[in-house]
Amino acid sequence: MEGLPLLPGYIFRDPTETKFHLPQKFGFKNGYRIATPVSVGIGDKPLDSDSITFYRDTQYVQFDPSLTYGRSKRSAPPVFVPHFVLYDKKALLFRGFFRESVCESPAEHYRVRHVNIVYYLEDDTLSVSEPAVKNSGLVQGCLVRRGRIPKNDAGHCWHWKDLNIGIDMLIYGIVYHTIDCDKFTKEYMESQGVELNPPEELPADPYITDRTLKEQTPASAPAVTDDRLRRFLEFDGKILRFFVAWDNRDADPTGCSELAPYVIYYFLADDTVQVQEVRSDNDGRDPFPLLLRKTKLPKNWKDLPANFPSLYLEISDQEITEFYSPKDFIIGNTIFVMGRRFLVYDCDPFTRNYFQKALNITQPAKMDVFPKKKPPPKPAIPPHTGFGTPEDSLQSCLSLQPKPPRKDVIRYVVNANKNLRYEARLDWVHPEDKDRRFIVLYSLADGNLSITEPPVRNSGIIGGRFLKPMLVPKPGTDPDNPEYYTAADIFVAPVHRDRCRPDGLPLHGGQSGEVPALGLQQHPQLRAAPGAGAGGSRGVRPGESLRGSVRGSVRGAGTASPVTLFFSHSLSQQHLIHFKHTFYGYKTQISRCTIIFVY
Fold it and tell me: What is the arithmetic mean of pLDDT over 58-79?
């Protein structure tokens, strides 16, 4: 196709070519002229200068000095920041004012209008705006739109180097006076070497000053608002309680009235008062629930307006001039509750603490207003009827439904299964009772005393229980309030010193004059017989051997008087058998001994 002549019929058009204009090289972008490099020609065909037709194969490698001297280090090119990017959204603010004359007005001759002068560093433009003043009646806001403002007739515009504090700026025939600037403006101007003048005071507008003085109301006490929700959240459940007395004896001609105790409750949440009567058993008064329901208590409930229709309208809070407050309830003061006089004589600890901390008032001490009553005489206890024990019969005198007497449970638990066992003989009168022997058993758990007579063959007396377990009173005591035998009253003693008379039969212990040491250590309530020591019996002293103790007892007693040996219950039967074998040489004396367990 390249060798065909340029004649009609020999030329073929390329259907893909649609554009036959020259590409545009110069243009505008964001208001700036920009030259765009062009690499194509008509029909978007590449230019001959960019094609490889005129390419010459030149050996540029031979002329590269970096191959000989090495590649040099190049510093990074500085970043280019356009002026509009560097100062974008940065502006200088100067505060100022201008005077506007007012004609044909008796109230004012001129106005002082405050303005803000803003200089934009991005494109060196200027704008003037006036802050809005409420109820000024003037069109405020933007006074001069943003743009380059001419400074003089020569066409020079205002520049940031021309701005300062305390200068006059003529803008479109109005003189603006600058008085101050913001912090950024001050720092920027100082960084550029511009020294700012000291700030000035902003003059006040005489009309606004006069109107402000007229609108000011005279000083008065602020109205106290009652925040009910706050009082409810803070004082809900907090009640002041005062103990009062109603004296109605002067108004009662019969003389039957007396001081009646009442309680006044003051609710701090809503300043209401409630009066309640103090009930007591058999006081002879009707059981009214409340004397005054929860309401605000007026100091003078008869102080009403002269035109108030009291015949058909009830008194409301609007007609009452003053109500009772916590400061009126001081001990010793008289409170009038709907015409009734109540004397405050005491209050509870919470009320005293509230007066001391919240009101800084110290309540006086309690007053004695009620006469002291004589204590009722104690009812006499009737004599014992003979049925049951005196303690059991006494319960029928204490209540209508008798209850069993209380038992000493601690004594029973501590001394459970612990008994004191003694051998005794009868203080005989008849010769046939001379050789009778008895076993006295005292229970430490409940204090019961029982006597058993061991059976003896061919004695003619049937042995067995002589006295069932019971509390045995001492002879000569009051039958209505008897004194019973205790563990300290039963001990081994001579006949003429210790006598126990259960059911009228005198018993006495063996001829022993000393309580055993082991028994005294285990039971401190046991005591030695007074005046004992004349008999042949003795206890084992601490640190004394069993053999030496028995030898001394047998030798001291001789063969004429019987000997009674005492052993603790801790000794087993094997120890007793070993004891008999050890003292076999004293068989005659040991066979006469009586072994008694004390436990």
Answer: 74
Contact present, 195 and 181 (Cβ < 8 Å):
no
pLDDT reported for residue 91: 93
pLDDT score for 493: 58
Q: Which domain holds residue 110?
A: 83-212
Is 510 a domain residue?
Answer: yes
Q: Which amino acid is at 176?
A: Y
Select from 440, 452, 561, 555 the least CA-distant residue to 511: 561
Structural domain count of the chain: 3
Give the distance between the most distant pair of CA atoms in the chain.
189
pLDDT above 70: residue 586: no
- Is residue 196 located within the same domain as residue 267? no
Dihedral sign from CA coordinates of 52, 54, 58, 60: negative
Integer Cα distance of 539 and 514 in angstroms: 6
The conformation of residue 557, written as its DSSP 8-state character, comes to H
The β-bridge relationship of strands 564-568 and 594-598 is parallel
Residues 283 and 179 in one domain: no
The amino acid occupying position 579 is F
Distances (CA, A) of 289 to 242, 244, 260, 292: 18, 17, 15, 9
Q: Does residue 25 form part of some domain?
A: no
Which residue in 298, 318, 300, 299 sits closest to 308, CA to CA? 318
pLDDT in tens, 327-385: 999 999 999 998 889 999 999 999 999 999 999 999 999 999 888 888 888 888 888 88
Same domain, 282 and 423: no
CA distances from 334 to 92, 242, 364 (A): 76, 12, 14
Q: Which residues pair with 46 in a beta bridge?
A: 40
Alpha-carbon torsion, ordered 578, 583, 585, 591, to 10 deg: -90
